[in-house]
Every structure is written in structure tokens, then in C-alpha cells.
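Please predict the structure of the following assembly.
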Amino acid sequence: MTDQEEETIEDIIVARDLEKRFEDLTAVDRISFRVRKGEVFGFLGPNGAGKTTTMKMIQCISPKSGGTLEVFGMDVDAHPREIKGRLGVVPQETNLDPDFSAYRNLLVYARYFGIPKREAEPRAEELLSFMQLEEKRDVLIEKLSGGMKRRLIIARALINAPELLILDEPTIGLDPQARHLIWEKLRSLQAQGNTLVLTTHYLDEAERLCDRLVIMDHGKILVEGPPADLIRKHAGSDVVEAARTPEVVARLDRLGLDYDIAGDMLQVFTDSPHDVARELLEVCRHEAVMVRPATLEDVFLRLTGRSLRE
Amino acid sequence: MIDISSRVRSVWRRNWDAFIRTYRVNFIPPFVEPVLYLLALGFGLGTYVETIDGIPYPVFIAPALVSISVMYSSFFECTYSSFVRMYYQKTFDAIIATPVGIDEVIAGEMFWGATRGMIYATLMLPVLLLFGVVAMPSSLLLIPFSGLAGLLFAAIGMCFTAITPGIDALNYPSFLFITPMFLFSGTFFPLELLPEPIQYFALAVLPLTHVVTINRAITLATFSPINLFNLAWIVVATAVFFLLAIRLMRRRLIV
């Protein structure tokens, strides 16, 4: 991308040295990033990496401790109401209003944005049909399935026609059908010109949806870029997996190839998988060797390690 | 210092809508409660008491019944009910993701608590009229005054909600603060019967004492200058607890 092009693209979010400190912990440690208009931008990282804290600062509900953060060109501390009025938020925890039906949830939420009833009513109907919830219009929240609740939360986040949608784990705990429907809807929102920022633990989800993403750990951004670039740069094109036997280790050492240990398996990240596989097949049974394309999951685990976080 | 706009209305309106949706159960207590108390205490026990300071016993307790009902409905709305909305339903989190700020959410909750007290007082009034235990038209003043008294108890309740570690701990103020007030605020017997130190204690720290005194002046249509002191006490205490509740809630919810 040339400098000239870069200037013509509008940045929706600009963070410089953004920091969030709690008493005994630095949750976000001087991170910088830009989100461009119209893109889907992902935050990935293990639990406690600082993703949700970053989302909350963007939403103007958690004050930053340091650095600068601008959303729509406005400072988050100075203009929280203006920013919140143009945002749509899908929180990690389902916080739909249990006292109301699906339709009333949307109307009550519209009121918080100061949207007049005559505008809110057709908009609510439209959003219910967009998220395929028309049949559940008058059903109380407790009677909805997990997938329906997530869809309704997305519909609710769209009630103010936001320019930026923030989604914290949008498909957490959903079955494949529900996830695919949500992905389809998110892509159609992007096609309409919306900017989407999301966090996710599902790396296939990030790979499918995100134009660009960052991987965070311990409050810092480790890498940033389009998923395909990150895979190429940090994992290579393919992965050869083999049983972790002394013979395999010896052969890899002799070839001078680096490998990662994953339980009782070894992983070799390489751009020439056939050559590596052929070598390894000479020292172990054929079903113990597997070749597959590298994924974002490989990048994630290589960068953040395999140890459990919580 | 406090960031409040007309958006408070949208928070108040959310609670109003939820209340109306289940209006049948919500409207039962204000009709049933005064009937039960008047029958049991007013006309049952009252047969032996006959009069207090020349006032028939049912007439003496009628304003206390309104005061207690306002206290209970406003205080419990802004303790248990607000806590459920804040902690279990995450309703506050959902609202502050919109242009409505946390100060407005808490203020809206307290105004709703006050409204609930006012609704109860309004519904009790015709029942009390039917029993012939309140004077008219002065008793119409019960309605606006219950809004102020309701706001006081709502604000006190919200302060406890802001500092409580969990919903069970809200039982402490309910039993140690609300229940003693129910009995020792000049409700069912005159304050003057208590030892003098306790009288002063009641006047100093039991808000219901002032509310009952004013409501009794209203239902008997006998106002005295002392009522201005009661009113001033209530206004100042309401302002203090209202601002304190918002401060404490900010400390709890903004992280």
C-alpha cells in the first residue's frame, strides 16, 4: 500500500501506547493499533491477554490509565456519549432484559439511544427478520435457545444503525449451524460498509472473518496483520506432524530441521512438506506421519505457548 | 460532579414497563395490606386501646400504614430488585453501553423506587377513605409527599446495594434498620412513650419517624411548625443519600 492510499483510508479507531493498570496488574500494556473503516479487525489471545479490557476501553465504559485512544476521531474520555451513540456492542455475557420479549428488548434498548418510537418499531421488526427471529418476536428471553439469544443480542447491537460494531466472543458456546448463520450475517454487515471489531477464541472464526488481526498476550500485541500473512510468516505454508520417537528426533536433528513438541507429537513447520514427510516415512510407520496446511491455530500456539492460563 | 440528563427517563421507563407487564401481582399489596392491618390492629387491638391522645386507634395508625408501605416498597425496590438487575441480569451493563451513563442509571433506579412508593400510597388512599380513617382533602397530600419519602428510602437502599458483597448481605439492613423503624418510629404507639434518649435517637437517625409525623399531620389535617423541621430533615437526608449512592455505585461499577 502506498502512502497516498493510506491517507485516504479513514481510521475508525486509533490507539497509541494504550494502557490499563489495575492495582496489582497491568491488563493492557502500552499497545498501539489502528482499525480502518470497513474492515473486520480481530483481537486474539489466551484468557487474560487483555482483549476484553481493550474492548471496554473502546466502548468508553472502562477509563484508560494511559496513552491515547480515539474512536471516530474523538477522544474516549472527552466524548463518551457521542462515541457510544455510534457504536453497537455485543458483550461476551448475554445481558438481554429477562423482563421483556424479544421485540420489547429491542424497543426498550432503542429508548436508551433516544430513538423515537415510530422509528424504533419498524427498525426492530426489520432486525428481527434480518437475524431470522420473527417467529420469536413475542417470546420471553428465558424461552430462547443460546443461539437465538446471541442473534437477538446482535440485533439489539444494530438498533442504532452503528458505524462500528464491537463483538466480544460473538459465537461463544454455539452449535455449528448457529455459528455459520452468525458468520454469514457478520459478513453481510461488512458488505454494507460497517466496521467490525471482534475478539474470539475460535481461530477458524478469526481466519474466516478477519481482514486483519492482532494476537495479544500478557497485555501486549505480539503480531499484527492479515491472517494469511501471519500464517506464512510465523508457521510457513505447511505442517508435518509425526510421532515423537527417538528415530524421528534423530532424523530431524540430522537434517537440521526445527520442530515443536506438542504432547506425544512433533510438528515441523515447513514450505517443503513433501521432502520432510518422505524423510520421516523412512523412520516411522506411515500412519504416524501427517501433512496439513498451517493454520492460524499453529501461529497462535507458537506465539503464546501451550501452557494453560487459568 | 454528577452527570445527569433527561436520559434518566429511559431507565425509569424500563422499570415502569416491567412493572406494568406484571401489574396484577404488583397491585395486590397496596389494597390488601391496609385492610389486614386496619382489621387486626386498628379494629382488633384498637378495641382495647380505644384512643391515643384523643384519636381513635385506627385513625392513629392509618398514616403509619402509608408511611411503612412507602418505606418497604421504595427500599426493597432499590435493594433486592436493583441488585438483581445490576448483578444477575447485567441490565446496568447493557444500559451503559448506550449513551446513558452510570449516574443516570442509578438516578433512574432511585426515581423508580420513589415512584413505586408513590404508586402504593396512591392505591392505599381509597382503601383508607373507605374505612373513614383519613381526613379529606388534606390527605391528597399523601401522594406527592410519598414521592419525596420514597426517594429518601430508595436512596438509602441504593447506598446499601452499592456496598453489599452479595444479595444475602442485604438482609442485614432489612432486619437491623428497616424492621426496628417499622416498630419504633411512632408508628403503632406515640414516640413519647419511649425513654427520652431513645426518642432523640429515633428523631436523629430513623427517617421513618419524620415521615410518619408528616403523614399523620396530613391525614389528621393538623399541621404544626414542627413539621417544617421534619420536612427539612427529609430533604437534606434525601439529597445526601442520593449523591452518596451515585458515588458509591460509580466506585463499584467503573473499573
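Chain A touches chain B at residues 22, 59, 61-63, 80-82, 84-85, 87, 89, 91, 93, 95-100, 104, 108-109, 111-114, 160 (CB under 8 Å). Chain A has two domains: 3-230, 236-294.
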